[in-house]
Amino acid sequence: MTQAGFYPPTLYNATEAAPQEQLALVKVQVDRCSGKYPSLDDDESYSLKIPTPEQSTKATIKAKSVWGALRGMETLSQLVYTTRAGALVIGSLPVDITDKPAYAHRGLMLDTSRNFFPVADIKRTLDAMSYNKLNVFHWHIVDAQSWPIESKFMPELYQKGAYSPSMTYSHREVKDIIQYARVRGIRVIPEFDMPGHVSVVNHVLPQIMTCVNEQPGWDAFAAEPPSGQFNPLLEDTYKFVKKIIDEYSGLFRDDYFHTGTDEVNTHCWETTQSIQQFLTANKKKAGELVDMFLGRAHKFLTDNKKLPMVWEEAILDFNATLSKEAVVQVWRSAENVQKVVAKGHKVLANSYEYWYLDCGHGTWLGNNPEGNSWCDPFKHWQRVYSYDPIANITSPAEQKLVIGGDVCLWAEQTDTNNLDNVLWPRAAAAAEVLWSGKEANGKPLTVKDALVRIQDQRFRLVARGIKAEPLQPLWCARNPGMCDLPPKAPE
Amino acid sequence: MTQAGFYPPTLYNATEAAPQEQLALVKVQVDRCSGKYPSLDDDESYSLKIPTPEQSTKATIKAKSVWGALRGMETLSQLVYTTRAGALVIGSLPVDITDKPAYAHRGLMLDTSRNFFPVADIKRTLDAMSYNKLNVFHWHIVDAQSWPIESKFMPELYQKGAYSPSMTYSHREVKDIIQYARVRGIRVIPEFDMPGHVSVVNHVLPQIMTCVNEQPGWDAFAAEPPSGQFNPLLEDTYKFVKKIIDEYSGLFRDDYFHTGTDEVNTHCWETTQSIQQFLTANKKKAGELVDMFLGRAHKFLTDNKKLPMVWEEAILDFNATLSKEAVVQVWRSAENVQKVVAKGHKVLANSYEYWYLDCGHGTWLGNNPEGNSWCDPFKHWQRVYSYDPIANITSPAEQKLVIGGDVCLWAEQTDTNNLDNVLWPRAAAAAEVLWSGKEANGKPLTVKDALVRIQDQRFRLVARGIKAEPLQPLWCARNPGMCDLPPKAPE
After folding, report:
1. Which of B373, B475, B478 is the mutation pick for testing A, counting most A CBs within 10 A?
2. Whether residue A6 has pLDDT greater than 80
3. Would residue A422 count as lying in a domain?
4. With helix as H, strand as E and coil as C, how does B361-388 read?
5. Which of A86, A108, A315, B58 is the most exposed place for a label (fewest CB within 10 A)?
6. Which residues in A151-201 belong to E strands, given as ranges?
7. What are the residue boundaries of the Beta-hexosaminidase eukaryotic type N-terminal domain, all occurrences included (chains A, B) (predicted)?
8. Contact B117, B415 (CB under 8 A)
9. In-domain check, residue B228
């Protein structure tokens, strides 16, 4: 399994042990088979016991659910090292682990609209997620730039909206991805971002669109080009939204369905004549239309027995009415997590300042001699690791509302050529925060100690086919502590 | 040749042309076959003429040297686009190009010591260099952490100093790499960095070493761990240096041989008792030993008919005496280029602030909760492109001393898993600066215009097997100008 030269580094200097008694059996005991698909309420706890050879040659994993058993097996795999001589060994026995996740929602968000990723990339990402006990694939499928997913009710959506006929996901492929994720204990939550970020729909239904691809000066109408939002006053808009939600609620199996609602541009609506007239006549502000839009869109979700997930703007900027079960995803600052829990909603905490893995390679906008981007700098693994989803939230009840977060990859500057590098091993640092929280045995988890774990994990990822970036020279990986920053470094 | 979906984007919206007369022949005419290996003095100019179909079906490339002809053929390949229907077309005819490089030395530096790169990675990098008319592979082969290259005179150097038996370059492989580079018009300049950055030699010759792997507090003795420098007072040191230079002067064929001399640590020598006694007895300062060391080392180069190349510290920090032919490589600031040309030396200009492609992914040092690195931030392509090797140098004579530069990759956080992503397409931005300079037809070349070229070039690189990072969403690539930063963007 291990590639040449990719010995797990912390064992590199270990003395080759004499042959030991072998582990003959790993008994996996699951209390009950939970639902067919993993869900937010799953119990993923497990215990793992490996006795000394003198005691027994039988290890035991016990879990409440099959998903917990999967986590236990992953932990077991991380205890096994390949020595230089090729022997498989477990470092120190006996092992007695009782473990459970700090957060129920441990996600990775991938944007497949700005650039396209083949199914093989998504499956490999699901593999890597499972190696890191991540359990939600938040699939930001469509956006302003392209519509890669097949639609049965309106095939032109992807026939005209995908970048090319080969850059699409058929229903069959999506079902395959969901199944692939399921057996790894990973939920797949689709996001159909609306009413903004939908410029691509203009290929098919220009009549329900406003402010499409305004040029030049797109920035007055959208967060990024091409601009374009649904007209929230037209019945045809809701007919379309209902069709979308009906079709993809059937295809995707998770309880949750993400309707986006980030970066809705009120200027776009205010400068659309018919909308402007409506606002004047009814003494309303454009922002109020978001609540109206979401109210109707989320009714379609309820009709499909789905629970809503939205970005933070829905509630923080537009004060939209959301059902109690709604999950609100915070991205604009770590502080906004507090604001959302104060309103009593469940929260996914993933501030761009920590968990936007795309940041830091400069702007993708043209004609910018400085080349800088709003979300610079790069979020190195230490920064990713330093994030605390419940920072500054002291009330246990409010802490409980923070159900987890997504490490996010917006794909403006990522495609199949660099996907693994951008995600890994940094997403593993987020995964550790989501599984272990920020302390162990009452002491804060530190970057110093995390390096050894994440470094080892990076070598495991490479050995398992994930092109994860190296964190250090191999010399440092093999000599833990010898490349530490000295206490009073001159730089 | 083009991958699915990787149409050269600027032609994406072009109307499919009706079948045209075909180009029947490309005549390549070379005045004289220059030396067997490319060299600094080569004339790489060429002309390329492609008539209209009405005029003729014969294109012509004329060059003074075979290397110039190679550059002309590369240009020709860049004029050919694959349409969506699969036809190969040339955008507009007639073509009449007369071209030559702005700089004679257009290099790419790769460090193969901090992390190892298989031969296939190096060959693929040479391929990509040739696609971008880069003509020097500066091979930073060994450093403190590992010694991957075979040595005939002292096999233990790589037997003990390489990371593993498979992470080595045999003489046969090096010859193969040099030949592979030669037929692409690329020189291979080896660097054996000394007298610092040699900790790895301690495995074999501890008797010639000082301050080896000082822990903790390595930072007082070296720029990075493990510390270790040659003892410049011992005859055994010079015997070893002579053997190294003799062996590798024979193996490598270029006129130049790089002896490093960056980041020599005087404290290391000052705290070595025997050296301290010598300095006191002779009323010398430790820095003066660099001049002494280099004087002897470069004598061995002369004996082997090699010309010296060194990093800037040799002359700017230690005022070493260098031969007139020596090339001094500047890395610590753009301004230092001026200081070196003022001393009358040839210069390679590659300030880390612009052309260190490894910067910006945070520190690789452990135990740094902040995670920042001295060479942050990331050098995005716009930054790379903005570098002017002759900035603020007004005298034509001094400008002429700037013979080019190397876009550099130090490999602390790069290995085979992310090599292509880190190098490309940013190295293509440096390559354009080195080939075209900073202006065309008396007007400055701009980032706005460069985007279209470098974007197209990135798609060509991907189509030719190089995993180059995307610069933009595919939508932007296909709609040039529509993703430009608006004149007064709010962010």
Report:
1. B475
2. no
3. yes
4. CCCCCECCCCCCCCCCCCCCHHHHHCCC
5. A86
6. 187-194
7. 18-79
8. yes
9. yes
User: Taking a C-beta distance cutoff of 8 angstroms, is the pair A432, A384 a contact?
Assistant: no
pTM for this model (two decimals): 0.96
What is the rounded CA–CA span in Å between residue B450 and residue A176? 42
Single-letter code of the amino acid located at B186: I
Mutate to test the interface with B, among A201, A215, A367 (most CBs of B within 10 A): A367
Other C-beta atoms within 10 Å of A293: how many? 26
Distance CA B384, CA B390 (A): 14
Give the best residue of B375, B383, B421, B459 to mutate against chain A (max A CB count within 10 A): B421
Cβ pair A92, A152 in contact under 8 A: no
Chain A residues with CB-CB distance to B372 below 8 A: 380
Q: Phi/psi zone of residue A327: left (φ > 0), alpha (ψ -120 to 50 degrees), beta?
A: beta
B145, A413: Cβ pair inside 8 Å? no
Number of domains in chain A: 2
Q: Are residues B143 and B21 in the same domain?
A: no
Q: Considering B74, B173, B263, B325, which one is annotated as catalytic?
A: B263
Is residue B59 predicted with pLDDT exceeding 50? yes
Closest alpha carbon to B425 in A362, A468, A114, A359: A362
Return the residue of A nearest to B213 by Cα.
A482
CA A107 to chain B, closest CA, distance in angstroms equals: 23
pLDDT at A92: 84
Q: CA separation (Å) from A173 to A149, A169, A252, B243? A: 10, 6, 12, 61
- Kindly write down the DSSP assignment for every residue of B133-194, as one continuous string: T--EEEEEEE-SS---B--SS-THHHHHHSSSTTS-B-HHHHHHHHHHHHTTT-EEEEEEEE
A-chain residues within 8 Å CB-CB of B448? 366-367, 369
d(CA A282, CA A296): 19
pLDDT in tens, A137-153: 999 999 999 999 999 99
B164 and B276 in a single domain? The answer is yes
Same domain, A174 and A284: yes
User: Is residue B25 situated within a structural domain?
Assistant: yes
- Give Rg (Cα) of chain A: 24
A459 neighbors A7 (Cβ within 8 angstroms): yes
Q: Give pLDDT, residue B2.
A: 34
Domain end point (choices A55, A73, A99): A99
For residue B10, give every residue at least 6 positions away whose Cβ sits within 8 Å of its Cβ, in sequence order, or none.
B452, B455, B456, B477, B480
Interface A-B, measured as beta-carbon pairs within 8 A, has a size of: 252
Same domain flag for B313 and B462: yes
Which of these is catalytic: A74, A263, A325, A469? A263
What range does the domain containing A20 cover?
Answer: 9-99
Answer yes or no: do A71 and A127 share one domain: no
Lowest mean pLDDT, pick from A11-15, A91-95, B298-302: A11-15
Q: Is A117 in the same domain as A237?
A: yes
Q: Which residue in this structure is represented by tokens 């980032």?
A: B447
pLDDT average, residue stretch B142-171: 98
Res. A7: pLDDT tops 60: no
Residue A270 among the catalytic residues: no
Q: What is the mean pLDDT of residues B34-49?
A: 92
Last residue of a domain, one of B99, B126, B160: B99
Query: From CA A412, how far away is CA B475, in angstroms rounded?
Result: 10
pLDDT at position A284 over 70: yes
Q: Could you tell me if residue A478 is inside a domain?
A: no
ipTM of model:
0.95
Is A289:A270 a contact under the CB 8 Å cutoff? no
> What are the distances in angstroms from CA A391 to CA A335, A386, A435?
8, 10, 16
Instruction: For residue B187, give the CATH number of its domain.
Output: 3.20.20.80
Residue B207: DSSP 8-state? G
Is the pLDDT reported for residue A12 higher than 80?
A: no
Q: Where are any strands of DSSP class E within B204-359?
A: 209-210, 229-230, 256-260, 307-311, 327-330, 346-349
Query: Which among B383, B447, B474 has CB closest to A367?
Result: B447
